[in-house]
């Protein structure tokens, strides 16, 4: 209570909870500030040094917003909504919705047993400054002692739509949205896979766990790649692997990993594994796409190999299907009657080739080409409608 209060510690609520109007500290250690925009007196609601919300409210509006700093579970996780305090020991592992510096954020909480994965992901974000619109934005990390256990926090931007898997489970998408999503994923993965030199240097990074649950849907329906806990980094000829034996989600593993033909010292091995998984994610999106040529498939039939393996398949199951039988996901017949879906299907097939060296090195250029087609198609439709309207006017 005796600590000095700084201007940056204050968050205003004059226009509603966490409106972030400009405020300054009033003389005296009374946890209040002055809002320059409204001349309202605001509680000190945020201790930036300790990342702790002390109180929320505006004196002049006589309103208190009872919002502990992390109080709501992420809407995509079916957990009860409770008024947890900031360091409440009942906040358990998983992804939570919180407020940080006035913004909604996602808080991924690891147990101390998973410190290796947490540390590796934080290091990948922090050291290498991953800033790209199609990579989940990292804000901060922290260790929190609840008294009974140590929690490890990873704080990132929050996307209300949740994961691509969640979004597709509730919604079908249009061709325009399909292309927007593909471009986002492709550009994000291309950025990860590219080693940058010079002042803005960045190692090449292979994700190693690409799947629809690790892709987030942004407000504009583009996508951002998330969860770098298993990522492998490659810089100046050196590979840095996480201290984990996990190799990704079994359903999305390429044939060479299922067949245990692992070349762990070569970055190209991990990059081509990512490309195989991207092919499966494209298939999931295409299955949930509606177009004039045909309807979207039910979500239950939109998980890769849904008709061949169990809900939680083993490596043995996947090896039998993918390696021994050489099966790939079923392509809907009507895709061949739609120019966009036909192109997307062609990209899928090249991504999930059994021969890693035959897979695409990047989907980004193909995605941009498909986007060009759909923009051209939109212009043609617009011109056709305009011409039809003109003819009708002349006829009348």
From TrEMBL:
<keyword id="KW-0472">Membrane</keyword>
<keyword id="KW-0418">Kinase</keyword>
<dbReference type="GO" id="GO:0005886">
    <property type="term" value="C:plasma membrane"/>
</dbReference>
<dbReference type="GO" id="GO:0043235">
    <property type="term" value="C:receptor complex"/>
</dbReference>
<keyword id="KW-0675">Receptor</keyword>
<dbReference type="InterPro" id="IPR011009">
    <property type="entry name" value="Kinase-like_dom_sf"/>
</dbReference>
<comment type="similarity">
    <text>Belongs to the protein kinase superfamily. TKL Ser/Thr protein kinase family. TGFB receptor subfamily.</text>
</comment>
<dbReference type="GO" id="GO:0006950">
    <property type="term" value="P:response to stress"/>
</dbReference>
<keyword id="KW-0723">Serine/threonine-protein kinase</keyword>
<dbReference type="InterPro" id="IPR008271">
    <property type="entry name" value="Ser/Thr_kinase_AS"/>
</dbReference>
<keyword id="KW-0732">Signal</keyword>
<dbReference type="GO" id="GO:0005524">
    <property type="term" value="F:ATP binding"/>
</dbReference>
<dbReference type="Pfam" id="PF07714">
    <property type="entry name" value="PK_Tyr_Ser-Thr"/>
</dbReference>
<dbReference type="InterPro" id="IPR001245">
    <property type="entry name" value="Ser-Thr/Tyr_kinase_cat_dom"/>
</dbReference>
<keyword id="KW-0808">Transferase</keyword>
<keyword id="KW-0067">ATP-binding</keyword>
<dbReference type="GO" id="GO:0071363">
    <property type="term" value="P:cellular response to growth factor stimulus"/>
</dbReference>
<dbReference type="GO" id="GO:0004675">
    <property type="term" value="F:transmembrane receptor protein serine/threonine kinase activity"/>
</dbReference>
<keyword id="KW-0547">Nucleotide-binding</keyword>
<feature type="domain" description="Protein kinase">
    <location>
        <begin position="31"/>
        <end position="376"/>
    </location>
</feature>
<dbReference type="InterPro" id="IPR000333">
    <property type="entry name" value="TGFB_receptor"/>
</dbReference>
<protein>
    <recommendedName>
        <fullName>receptor protein serine/threonine kinase</fullName>
        <ecNumber>2.7.11.30</ecNumber>
    </recommendedName>
</protein>
<keyword id="KW-1133">Transmembrane helix</keyword>
<keyword id="KW-0812">Transmembrane</keyword>
<dbReference type="InterPro" id="IPR000719">
    <property type="entry name" value="Prot_kinase_dom"/>
</dbReference>
